[in-house]
Write a structure and sequence with these properties.
- By secondary structure, the protein is mainly β.
- The protein is built from five helices and 22 strands.
- The strands form five sheets. It has a six-stranded mixed beta sheet, with no helix packed on it. It has a five-stranded mixed beta sheet with strand order 2-1-10-5-6. Strands 3, 4, 7, 8 and 9 form a five-stranded antiparallel beta sheet that branches.
- A hairpin with a 5-residue loop joins strand 1 and strand 2.
- It starts with about 35 loop residues before the first helix and ends with a strand.
Length: about 375
């Protein structure tokens, strides 16, 4: 997130030097630096999931997290076109009605922002200041990407599919359309369930979620699921645009090439028990049995274990996990019961997936603030 490779999301060279006056390089906050007005402005535009909404199997669209890099573009479904080109034998130019006329499928998919947890890092990378709420689960309906690529006929030597959205802006001095790519082995695999989605929870996509068409990539962080999708280009070389090779990389230092951000790390979240204090969000409960529940997910493999600590992480007990094997890309539910005594308590929850990945007790730091799946800790006061 801290340099530029000389390419932009549109394939154009970086703009004139004047763009640097409004688009600063990535940076890490100083030791005593609080969240500034620019970060607050981002937080006002990009909202997270209220944790009490974890009670819903599918997140109502207005409660699902939102991350919009630039502006929500003006989009008319009647005039929208999707082009499929590049290294294909039969280029396509399709309207939304033509896409809707093709066979569609519905997948329940949990999406999480790659920067979820960024504001809990120290030192803090300066960007959208997520805590833990940048997540949501929806029923996405659309055309399988694999079917559309098969219809277009992928040419010999193709390695990636590049996806371009209609949102346009400048980031770290680079003017660009938002653009990302996927390896062709993933994009063209019908079992991976990548969708060109036009419907969310049974209704047309809301504007903030990509109306009228978006990509949905199950198991990958949300930056891969390009919204306001208008072009798919099959390429014989890896895409090196800003969002691929500059922005979403795990780096410790500003000059490192870094590793790509891709698959979602495991996470469990708790529905906050009891009732909250307005400012601190500290939870208040009464003595006696208290039900605890929440959701857990991972892009690597299904979550098989959720553990809870109620004594400051000295001991752990297993919660009951309920997952639907028909929906491998959706979060699982978990629940247990806790019987507190009067006084302050610290509750901690962590998830483990079938591939052996477990949430850490200390935050995995990087300059972009990506993939911080630190365990969730909830302060609770039990009062009589």
């Amino acid at each position: 997130m801290d340099g530029t490779d000389g390419t932009s999301g549109t394939g154009r060279a970086p703009g004139p030097a004047g763009l640097g006056e409004v688009s600063a390089p990535g940076r890490v906050a100083g030791p005593d630096e609080g969240i500034g007005t620019a970060e607050l402005a981002l937080a006002a535009r990009n909202h997270g999931l209220p944790l009490e909404a974890l009670r819903y199997d599918t997140t109502p669209p207005g409660l699902h997290y939102v991350l919009v890099h630039y502006d929500i573009p003006a989009a008319d479904a009647e005039d929208w076109r999707l082009t499929v080109g590049g290294l294909v034998r039969r280029p396509l130019d399709l309207g939304l009605a033509e896409l809707r006329a093709r066979p569609s499928v519905t997948h329940r998919v949990t999406l999480e922002c790659a920067g979820n947890g960024r504001a809990r890092l120290s030192p803090r990378p300066v960007s959208q200041p997520w805590l833990v709420e940048a997540v949501g689960t929806a029923d996405w309906t659309g055309v399988p990407l694999a079917a559309l690529l098969s219809e277009a006929g992928v040419g010999e030597g193709a390695v990636e599919a590049v996806f371009t959205g209609a949102d346009h802006g400048v980031e770290r001095g680079t003017e660009q359309d938002y653009r990302r790519s996927l390896p062709l082995a993933l994009a063209a695999d019908p079992d991976r369930g990548v969708l060109l989605a036009h419907t969310m929870n049974g209704a047309p996509l809301p504007p903030q979620h990509g109306h009228p068409l978006r990509l949905v990539v199950p198991g990958w962080y949300g930056m891969a699921s390009v919204k306001w999708l208008r072009d798919v280009t099959v390429t014989a070389t890896p895409f090196t645009g800003f969002q691929q090779s500059v922005a979403y990389r795990y780096r410790q230092g500003p000059d490192e090439p870094g590793e790509p951000v891709d698959v979602i790390a495991p996470r469990a979240l708790m529905i906050p028990p009891g009732f909250p204090d307005f400012m601190t969000r500290t939870r208040v409960v009464r003595p006696g049995p208290v039900p605890l529940a929440g959701r857990a997910w991972s892009g690597h493999a299904p979550v098989t274990r959720v553990e809870l600590s109620t004594d400051g992480e000295r001991t752990w007990t297993d919660a009951e996990v309920t997952a639907d094997p028909r929906r491998p890309w959706a979060w699982a539910a978990w629940h247990t019961t806790w019987t507190p005594v009067p006084g302050p308590h610290l509750l901690t929850v962590r998830a483990t997936d079938a591939a052996g990945h477990t949430q850490p007790l200390t935050a995995p730091w990087n300059r972009g603030g990506f993939g911080n799946n630190l365990v969730q800790r909830v302060e609770v006061l039990c009062v009589t």
